[in-house]
Design brief:
- Helices cover 68% and strands 7% of the residues.
- The protein has helices spanning 14-38, 44-69, 73-94, 102-111, 118-137, 140-215, 221-248, 256-269, 288-306, 337-348; strands spanning 273-275, 310-315, 319-324, 352-357, 363-368.
- Strands 1-2-3-5-4 form a five-stranded mixed sheet.
- Helix 1 runs antiparallel to helix 2, helix 4 packs antiparallel against helix 5 (118-137) and helix 4 (102-111) packs parallel to helix 6 (140-215).
- It is elongated, with a radius of gyration of 38 Å.
Amino acid sequence: MSSEKSGGTFLGRGPGRWYVGAGFSILLWAWPTWNLVWSVDEPLPWKLAASTSLIAFFAAYAILPMYSRRRGSGTGLVCVSILLALNGLVIFLVGPEALWTWPFLACAIAMTVLPPRVDFALIMALAAVSLGTGLSTGTPGQAFFQPALILSLGLMMSSFARMIRQTSQLRAAQSELADAAVAAERSRVARDMHDILGHSLTVIAVKAELAGRLMEGATGPSLDRAAAEITEVQDLARGALADVRATVAGYRGVNVLAELATARTALESAGIEAELPSTVEQVPARHRELFGWVLREGITNVVRHSRATHCRVMLTASGVLVEDDGVGPGPEARPGSGLAGIRERAAMAGGSASIGPSELGGFRLAVDV
């Protein structure tokens, strides 16, 4: 019956429920015990001292278990020591009639954060002492009632406390996983942004510098070449902008560069050697969505169905090729809905899709536009 520290603040509705239950039990049991003080013929100073000890014990009973949950098992031992001392003072002043406070004491021990099995040992010891006291001073029927009450309430509250601690730990773990997922997503976006922009912006800078040099006093062919370089810079800039928009939008659309990054991760996770292009700058912006769909469908088939050890992807300005060295298409194989969709998209772009055996020995998917 371990009562180890939960690793954080006490979450959920456990503390509120404990305070409500503690207040209810104080109203339920404190009045009969209080009546034992004021209904007897004793001096007023004794009554005041006994009443003060009862108030102090029940205040500690309501507060200290929850306080220990914010501090840990070391503080829990101190809290239990205070509870035992206050209860001992109550019994010393009131007498054996105050043993009715021991079920409260068992509940408080069960709800206090203590080292493993200490709460169980204390509850068992409390029940044993109560049984011995009852057998020596009362009837056998009455002697067994209070130990049974101590055990049942103590063990029930221990189970309740364990359930709440486990819930608290589960919520803390969920929070840590959520934080880790956010950090991983930030890392992924940063990595993809670097992959997307790094090479394209470098080429844009080089081409812009070259165009600037060519345009210095240039005429004729040099001017035409500078204009061509500027046109390429514009196309690269548009492609890079489209890539950035696709990434920032969370890959809602399909983009060849985003799918290339996803393909690299998927193939590595599947243990398939990947032979991928290092850049997509040669792909015109108007074809990047189509080629992205081809990559998505082709890599999905490689990972799920091919049993391949090697996959190759090739990109040109007018075509994309995905092939592997896996089992290849069987004689009765028919294209699924995904490949049929690729054919339709290629036809809409004025191109064609071919599906068949690969030079590597497996499956081959190619689109030319």
